[in-house]
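Write out this protein's structure.
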Amino acid sequence: MADSAPVLVIIGAPGAGKTRLGKRVAKILAVPFIDTDKRIVEQHGVISEIFSQQGEPAFRQIERDVVANALGENAVVTLGGGAVLDADTQADLAGKRVIQITVTAEAVQSRIRDSKRPLLTAGVEAWTALVHTRQPIYDRLSVKSFDTSSRSLDSVAADIVQWLRNTGE
């Protein structure tokens, strides 16, 4: 694990666009991009299979380890929607530049249709309940929010980069 901090950590609801946005921001800033869910898949296999074969607690432990390592790297880092549930991860995010990506239920509906996300198989109703439960954590951990409901991701990414530059990054 590198002895540095991430340039930016992106958290928020499933389907909000964290990964696609993170890639754009990292490219503009010319820094590496880390998607912790992608790392989990690369190192441990498909997330839905981990859930079904080992259960959510086993997945959350794997996720915690991957997140802890990623937060030690100089990169734009996106966390899976539930990674913030871990108390150690919450503590690790203290003092880091953390933004939240939000999206409305109406806008996310088409994004999560046919989702392979294990906690969203019941559709937008499950998504709404999940977000409602996690929202206080997202709000507490993030210093700023950006919404992807009705704007292009390129436009939102430009706003994020401008905000980073204005806050000393």
